[in-house]
Amino acid sequence: MNKEEKGKRKARAEDAEEMAYLNLLVPNVELSTGCSPSHLPGGPPSEEAQALSHRILSLMHTSQLISMDDMRVWHHPNPTQPPLPSPSPPSETSPSNPPTSMSLDIPNDPEDDTTSPQTPTVRAYWTLHITLLVLSLSGPPFATLWTALIAALRNTRLPLAWWDADANTVLCSPAISSAKPLTLNGLPMAMGFGVFEAGPPGGLVSSTQQAKEKEKEEGKEN
């Protein structure tokens, strides 16, 4: 492994630690949808739902799935290099459709700010709230939930956002053309498997079927 590859891996590990520290990923598995008799609608989150949410969050961090660069909102103080989108059609920038504001303000302390006035700084972060709804539960759901998560993230686009010093908040462009897709590091997949034991000639039987046949044989003997 060369130095460049080691540097990239170290940077990704540091970004994953920062993302976990700031709690920028908030997955939530919802089983209270009537997906099974044990998960009735309107009930509180079950232990299984909370365990699945935690497993998904842990795997997102350990796999370093999302790039930290996509989550940062920068402030560019140099007016000659504004991070604004290219001119949009009148329908997208009309007075009735101004840039939207979002509550992502994490301002730096002016007393602790030792950077140059012309140096771009990170002033806020995106937070991804991910809700996974289970409509039918008839087996281990983790692999299906993870596949749905990957499919959703591959189609997620974040609006162009920048820090407005005058408004002291973050603004987002309403132009769809300026939205940026998430950068996913690889394509980790979760897979499930089943274990079958060899049965009589002509096919395979599961351990459950073997147990039932054994009970029948014991009942005949008695």
**Proportion of helical residues:** 25-40%
| Shape verdict | elongated
Structure annotation, total helices: 4
Largest sheet: 3 strands, antiparallel
Structural class: alpha+beta
Please trace the helix and strand order, writing H or E for each element. Answer: HEHEEEEHEEEEEEH
Q: Reading side by side through the largest sheet, how are the strands ordered?
A: 3-8-7
Q: How many strands?
A: 11
Question: What Rg is obtained from the alpha carbons, in whole angstroms?
Answer: 25 Å
Q: Any low-confidence stretches, pLDDT <50, length ≥5?
A: 80-107, 109-115
Distance between the termini: 67 Å
**Arithmetic mean pLDDT:** 79
Strand content: 15-25%
Question: Which key terms come to mind for this protein?
Answer:
alpha+beta; 222 residues; 4 helices; elongated; 11 strands; three-stranded antiparallel sheet
Describe the structure.
It is built from four helices and eleven strands; from the N terminus they run H-E-H-E-E-E-E-H-E-E-E-E-E-E-H. It is of the alpha+beta class and 222 residues long. The longest helix is centred in the first third of the chain and has 20 residues, at 3-22. The chain is elongated. The chain starts with a helix and ends with a helix.
Compact summary:
This protein has 222 residues and is an alpha+beta fold. It has 4 helices and 11 strands. Strand 10 (197-198) and strand 11 form a beta hairpin.
